[in-house]
Design brief:
CATH topology of the largest domain: D-amino Acid Aminotransferase, Chain A, domain 1
CATH class of the largest domain: Alpha Beta
Radius of gyration: 22 Å
Helix content: 25-40%
Distance between the termini: 61 Å
Strand content: 25-35%
Structural class: alpha+beta
Number of strands: 18
Number of helices: 15
Strand order of the largest sheet: 13-12-9-10-11-14-17-16
Shape: globular
CATH superfamily of the largest domain: ATP-grasp fold, B domain
Largest sheet: 8 strands, antiparallel
Number of domains: 3
Length: 418
């Protein structure tokens, strides 16, 4: 089979060779030089570099116009390029999810409408142009969220005390979001009611519309707080047959029929409120914690599903080991311009027998200047194990309560007089 992979996620996060044979298939990786650099040196494949200045679809289309070739399958494992892959399939006449289907799992306004029509509660929301046309009149009281329709990692998300405050900030060009303050492309934004409560994420696999694997977890902290510089994590929890049915209904509503999924919901007095979903694996160490708990490597099985294999019977049986796992990450993007000098309060946790992995940024290193959950780019990232959900949760909470980050302004560069 001739396979084109729009390569953006670092190779080690996906481990493509675990899901698809590079000896049996002809595989081409299309990506920027930095993405291609993450491919193992001896991997049998074709590497095609793209500039990364335009969307992946446009650069792939231009490359294929100059060097025509056929593909049987087009794959993307990155949330940011799922739509590009769908557009390229349509352009090439390759089977797979089409743009309209992928958009349901990318555009938060479209997905909430679809889920709501399926009888599942969602936060009340308004497209930003309609909100402005109504001069801030919203069908909910209290806190109001401004967010991009297709964003990720809570970038560009703001919470205001009320719809009126949101309107005043937008009208006054005081949101701090250049696009919104300039009044451009406002259709790319929405406002929604703020629903308070624990936030849970559900991760697993679906094939032919049937949920084959499901793991449930609850966040410690939130993605929004993480974007603002606070640590976050999550711990695995039990779930009921009713929750499994709820997840299945939500996936069906947005036409996520094959592959991995990452679904988030807010628990409002015990009732899940749909927040958003992606047809992809979760970030941070979700893949690792799911594999530790179930023996299933999500990206590998997703690739096998993409190849048309029936995977249900090949999945391992539930383990007798009932250990719970969680992941934790401390950001560094908010420390731009500072040099990381180390962590105070980390010693007893670093040597804890509960630690599965611990990836700490070396002192003297500058963290990534963008929001990321990636080990090696954040101040700290890792996985922890416990006998119960509560043990894992309490360990993560205690870790976050003990940590403090030491930083220092880098020494100025001395210039030799000319």
């Amino acid at each position: 089979m001739r396979i084109l992979i729009l390569h953006r996620v670092p190779y080690f996060k996906i481990e493509y060779d675990r899901g698809v044979s590079h000896d049996e298939h002809d595989i081409t990786y299309l990506g920027t030089d930095s993405a291609l650099d993450t491919l193992p040196p001896g991997l049998r494949c074709k590497r095609v570099s793209r500039p990364g200045l335009a969307p992946a679809f446009e650069e792939a289309r231009d490359w294929l116009a100059q060097e025509p070739r056929d593909f049987d399958l087009v794959i993307s494992m990155s949330e940011y390029e799922l739509l590009d892959a769908a557009q390229l399939r349509e352009h090439l006449g390759v089977p797979g999810a089409v743009p309209e289907q992928v958009a349901l799992a990318r555009d938060k306004t479209l997905m909430k409408r679809a889920v709501e029509q399926a009888g599942i509660r969602v936060p009340r929301f308004l497209p930003l142009p309609r909100f402005l046309h109504q001069r801030g009149r919203a069908p909910w009281p209290g806190s109001t969220v401004l967010k991009p329709n297709c964003g990720a990692s809570s970038e560009g998300v703001l919470v205001f005390g009320s719809a009126r405050q949101a309107l005043d900030a937008i009208d006054g060009g005081r949101t701090g979001i250049a696009q919104v303050d300039a009044g451009t492309d406002l259709a790319d934004w929405e406002v929604e009611e703020f629903v308070a409560g624990p936030i849970r994420h559900f991760d697993g696999l679906v094939q032919g519309g049937e949920v084959l694997l499901l793991c449930a977890s609850e966040y410690v902290g939130t993605c929004l707080e993480y974007a603002q510089g606070a640590p976050m994590g999550s711990f695995q929890i039990e779930f009921s047959a009713q929750i499994r049915d709820w997840v299945s209904r939500a996936l069906a509503a947005v036409r996520i029929e094959n592959g991995s999924f990452h679904l988030e919901a807010i628990l409002d007095h015990g009732t899940p409120v749909f927040l958003e979903v992606g047809n992809r694996v979760g970030g941070a160490d979700v893949v690792s914690t799911v594999e530790l708990a179930t023996g299933v490597h999500l990206p590998s099985v997703e690739l096998r599903i993409a190849l048309g294999e029936s995977v249900a019977e090949a999945l391992p049986s539930p383990s007798a080991d009932q250990s719970r796992y969680g992941w934790f990450v401390h950001p560094g993007h908010h420390l731009v311009g500072l040099e990381f000098r180390g962590l105070d309060g980390a010693a007893p946790f670093r040597s804890s027998p509960r630690v599965v992995t611990w990836n700490e940024l070396p002192p003297g290193t500058s963290p990534a200047d963008h929001i990321t959950y990636q080990a090696g780019e954040t101040v700290l990232a890792g996985v922890v194990e416990g006998e119960t959900s509560e043990e894992v949760r309490d360990w993560i909470v205690d870790l976050f309560g003990s940590l403090s980050v030491r930083t220092h302004a880098p020494a100025p560069v001395e210039r030799t007089p000319v």
